[in-house]
Task: inverse folding
């Protein structure tokens, strides 16, 4: 990119030293990519109009004042207004084919769980408490407060809401396959015997909102890789453009 090729070695070193080089590269790469994304006139006008409304700009005089105060021109304002729309269109074009695989890879991080937990070193005591809870002779929260040997004794045994993957690996499948309110027999984990009861599991679904989130994550992962590549080239004294064609974007 011409904008980055203008940087001298001293500028590059100064930006790198102040941790500003990569943010600059990322911004310029993104701007360069999105500037080539075409938007039909009707959507373009509607998007700019809605963006101006959010800024409180309702007429030409307010527009001129806003541009003056913020020291940008109308073309730059329009680019700012259209950036999200262009990014969405670019992501759909370049990454839509990878969304489902990325979603499945991330699913344990996206599923949100709340569960009760009680841990003891003594297996026989853990089994006794399990039967008391199972037979509804005692409340899980009361027993967790009285007997649990972990920090959960301060929360009546409640853990969450947290991503499912934050649970111990030995508990993930148990929680995923449990019914709310169902207490599990003692499970041995790291030298303790653990009782768990699923309270709720909010399972992520690949709806339109989640698809957009996954597309943005894929873009961020890709642009981060390109940024690191370009940064390494600049630091090594090579100023060859990295993003020069559609093939190199993939």
Result:
């Amino acid at each position: 990119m011409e904008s980055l090729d203008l940087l001298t070695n001293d500028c590059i070193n100064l930006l790198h030293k102040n941790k500003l080089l990569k943010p600059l590269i990322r911004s310029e790469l993104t701007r360069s990519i999105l500037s080539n994304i075409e938007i039909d006139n009707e959507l373009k006008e509607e998007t700019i109009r809605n963006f101006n409304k959010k800024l409180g700009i309702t007429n030409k005089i307010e527009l001129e004042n806003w541009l003056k105060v913020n020291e940008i021109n109308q073309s730059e304002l329009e680019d700012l207004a259209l950036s999200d729309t262009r990014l969405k269109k670019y992501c759909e074009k370049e990454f839509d084919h990878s969304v489902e695989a990325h979603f499945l890879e991330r699913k344990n991080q996206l599923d949100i769980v709340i569960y009760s937990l009680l841990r003891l070193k003594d297996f026989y005591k853990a089994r006794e408490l399990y039967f008391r809870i199972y037979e509804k002779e005692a409340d899980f929260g009361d027993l967790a407060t009285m007997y649990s040997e972990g920090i959960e004794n301060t929360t009546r045994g409640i853990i969450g809401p947290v991503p499912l993957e934050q649970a111990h690996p030995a508990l993930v499948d148990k929680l995923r396959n449990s019914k709310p309110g169902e207490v599990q027999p003692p499970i041995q984990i790291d030298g303790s015997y653990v009782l768990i009861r699923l309270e709720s599991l909010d399972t992520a679904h690949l709806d339109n909102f989640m698809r957009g989130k996954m597309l943005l994550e894929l873009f961020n992962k890709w642009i981060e890789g390109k940024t690191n590549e370009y940064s390494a080239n600049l630091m090594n004294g090579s100023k060859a453009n990295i993003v020069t064609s559609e093939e190199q974007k993939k």
